[in-house]
Amino acid sequence: MAGIGSRSELLNLLGDVKARVQDKIGIVDFPMPQFILIGKQSVGKSRLIEALAGETFNFISGTLGSRRPTILEFRNVVGSKASRWFVRDRQTGHWNEHEVSKVMQLVGDAHEELGETVSQEPICVRVQSPSCVDMQIVDLPGFRDFALDQSKQELCTRIEELVMTFMRDPRNVMLCVEQCGDAATMSTLGKCRQIDPKFQRTILVRTKLDKYYTDLTKENVNQWVDGFGDLPENLVRFALTLPWWQDGEICPAESFVKMRDEFNAKDQAEMRDRQLKPEYMQTIGFHAFGVFMEKKIEHMFADAINPVLDKLRELKTKYTSKEQSLQTEYEETDPHRILSTTRECGISFASALRSVMEGIPNLSTGRMTLEKELKEFHEYHKKLGSDHFQMLPSEDFMGLDDYIDYLQNDIQIGASDAEVNGGAQFRRVMAEVEIFLRFSEIAVETKKRDVIQARGVSMSSLTWRDVVVKLLSNEAHLPLQRRVQYVGERIKWFFQIQKDSVIDFMSSLEGNPSEKMYSSLLPKNVKLIKQNEMIKHLVFSTYDQACQRQLNQFIELFDNMLTSTFANPWVFLKGATYTGYEDGDTALPSLDDTKDRIPKEIQSRSSIESKLSEWLLGIPTDSHQIDEAVDKVQMLVLKTYSFIRSQVCDQVELFAESFFKLPMLRRLEEDMNRIALSDADKANYKARRDRLEGEVVKVKENLKEVAECTERLQAFKLKCQAQRAR
């Protein structure tokens, strides 16, 4: 930076950029350094500010003192005859020039309107004067050690929390104001030490040095400046005397700067007379402090240009992308295109679901372990109050945790501890529901009365085959049916929780190397789904309806299969065909081997049925052998049910694929293509379109602000580089 003109221009430029970005765009996290002035009441903070400004003034903060930050921008204007005061309007963001008395009133009103509360929203004041130091600071409310009542104590607490918030911000350099005295008793410095233990962004300013002239001698002055060992060597510190006058007197405005210079000269002379070391003399007096602050803030702000430019470029990229997304949504929500747009989004969602079910690596959204999955499933149906199916496979389990422990430790179900989603999660669901089904048992013991009643009034009216079928239908059908309902609900819930995973997959395609493997509509339409709540609602509602429809069809088809099975279990229980291969066979079978195998396979299909028929023939038919007949019927019912249960459990994944998953994936696009808009949907779309129009305008305004700020900073940077090159 070349001279005061460049420094003032830099401070003005960065200050305006920060104000525009924070107030007009609403970006709080902006990489701009600033000095914050902290200290207890009556330690000389206000007089230090007056010294920096080069004139006296008095901010009227009422009886409760200051309760919000005051940002003070001091601009040294060489050659100007008088100071000029400006206050930044908190509504418009414009700087308005006022008389000093009016500025004091505006600042006081800003504090008084808070009552006994505090606010982080600052009041901004700018002073242009030939006598001020080129810098800007944030004056914070002073720490308070005493309160008259509970309400004042609460105000003290809130003020301390406000100040500590600013102190914790790593971008803020703390000007810690303390009275000259014992360094070990400096309470504000102690607070700084807690937050900044290495004092990397703390500057100690000790005021009222003149009170200690008589205590300082040639022997102790160097130790006193050094804090008698209580101040770390790396802590930047200054000691100075600020202008003061007797109570009741008024300092003439034209003599304040003169008094500031006189006290500075006296500080220098007194410490020089006491033979203070030259390196310590650079920390004595207001002028030394002012020169240090001008250089410090110049370097800090110069170093901030590149981070600020990077932040502005980041904002430009963000708002450009947002403008494109909003513009696309605005065009796609045209009343003449909205229905087709919604259907397109739904079809893209259905297409992405198929990909997720096939398995997508590095897709983190929606992943869960088996334990989390089962607990969330139970919690979901607990809230719904579901009682139409069994939540646990057996009453012998003490609860869900007991069942989960059984799955993880006894069965050791695959990937139970792994967080998965999509197709991998579906495979795990299939393994869990198969185990759940295998716990199915006939609910009651078959009694002699049940067997006789099923046989009829005459011992020869029905065959034992018919009796077994009756008993199975009455006692075994319902337990298995209720567990099948559990299977259907688990699959339905699995599909319902895949929404976030599908959306995440669609979003991840943009800029991804695998983007070309999928439809270009996926990343485009997912933005519409995420931005437009109406489209999202319609797509998700249609998806949920498809899940419910497939559940109903799954239950209906499975029930039909169970009904036919229990109506004629002997046909259902034909065994699997014989493979015809022996262990150790390595060559393909010959034609003769194949001809020999086929009759054996056909014959083996009825192996279980033949065995059951053999057991049926062993049941006595004489009346005096009824007890033996009942025992054998009970045995036959249990064995037949175990065969049916095993066959159903072995094929549950086939049923789930055939009756639920495949119809779901195949018909979902068709469902999405039939989305219709109600009058309420059309009205909501119109309201959304009206809001979009305003959002597009706002984003364009933000882009304009960012572009102008970037252009000004880049121009200033080039100007400074050109000056250094001369």
TrEMBL record:
All residue ranges annotated as the Dynamin GTPase domain in the record: 4-234
InterPro entries per UniProt: Dynamin (IPR022812), Dynamin_GTPase (IPR001401), Dynamin_N (IPR045063), P-loop_NTPase (IPR027417)
Alphabetized SMART domains for the sequence: DYNc
Domain of life per record: Eukaryota
Pfam name, any one: Dynamin_N
Protein name (record): Dynamin-like protein C
